């Protein structure tokens, strides 16, 4: 269990260091072109997910996401107590990952984001992103487990662009990004709505794909 929690902490740390770090780098280099900055943020995020899930999947299952952990808990594939510890490791790892990105780029270690992400369109984007992410994982586990790392990485890469919210799809990521006043940030006042929608989407996706994938 200790190794599994360390894997979840380190994986989420690495994910957030990549998301925030690549966002800072992309914004610095894009010369004000938001599309180029988003592309520079998207590619590293999708790529690191492939690496992290491949590396840590055999240890902890490579959730790195409370919504995914909730789905597996609902499927009774992880006990509630262990799921709670997973979530704590994910949140803590994500926040420290943001701090590490700030340190690398000579920014204030702890910030509060001023980037507003609110409104029905953004919330719908988060629902679609999280529903699709959980569905991708569950369907791949059923059909081709070895494809999960690539499928998740590609899904998030696509969802950065086809969802209005740029696909947070992860409560730990959402919390951590509120500590960064950078390209990847989210205003703390918008965090609760994002997380609520992500969790609802995860529950509904778990039920839907249970029905869809039954033999």
Task: Describe the protein's architecture and organization.
- The longest helix is centred in the N-terminal third of the chain and has 28 residues, at 2-29.
- The mean pLDDT is 97.
- This protein has 215 residues and is mainly alpha-helical.
- Helix content is 73%, strand content 0%.
- It has helices spanning 2-29, 34-60, 66-74, 80-104, 120-143, 148-162, 171-177, 191-213.
- The N and C termini lie far apart (32 Å).
**Average pLDDT score:** 97
- How many helices in DSSP terms? 8
Compute the number of structural domains. 1
- So what's the CATH class? Mainly Alpha
Look at the structure and name the CATH superfamily: Glycerol uptake facilitator protein
Q: Helical content, roughly?
A: over 70%
How far apart, in Å, are the first and last alpha carbons? 32 Å
Number of strands: 0
* Oligomerization state: single chain
Structural class: mainly alpha
**Which sequence of SSEs, written as H and E, runs from N to C?**
HHHHHHHH
Low-confidence stretches: none
Dominant shape = globular
Concise synopsis of the structure shown:
This protein is mainly alpha-helical and 215 residues long.
Features:
single chain, 215 residues, mainly alpha, Glycerol uptake facilitator protein, globular
Secondary structure: elements and pairs:
Elements: H1 2-29, H2 34-60, H3 66-74, H4 80-104, H5 120-143, H6 148-162, H7 171-177, H8 191-213
């Amino acid at each position: 269990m200790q190794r599994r929690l360390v894997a979840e902490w380190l994986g989420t740390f690495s994910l957030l260091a990549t998301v925030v770090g690549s966002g800072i780098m992309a914004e610095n280099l894009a010369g004000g072109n938001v599309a180029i900055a988003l592309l520079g943020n998207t590619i590293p995020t999708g790529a690191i997910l492939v690496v992290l899930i491949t590396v840590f999947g055999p240890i902890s299952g490579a959730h790195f996401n409370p919504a995914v952990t909730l789905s597996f808990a609902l499927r009774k594939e992880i006990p509630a107590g262990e799921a709670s510890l997973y979530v704590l490791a994910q949140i803590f790892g994500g926040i420290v990952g943001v701090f590490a990105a700030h340190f690398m780029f000579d920014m204030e270690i702890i910030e509060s984001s001023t980037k507003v992400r609110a409104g029905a369109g953004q919330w719908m984007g988060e629902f679609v992103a999280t529903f699709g992410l959980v569905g991708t994982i569950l369907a791949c586990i059923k059909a081709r487990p070895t494809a999960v790392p690539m499928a998740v990485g590609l899904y998030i890469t696509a969802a950065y662009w086809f969802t209005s919210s740029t696909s947070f799809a992860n409560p730990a990521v959402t919390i951590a990004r509120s500590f960064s006043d950078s390209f990847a940030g989210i205003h703390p006042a918008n965090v609760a709505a994002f997380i609520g929608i992500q969790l609802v989407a995860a529950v509904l996706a778990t039920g839907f794909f249970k029905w869809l994938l039954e033999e």
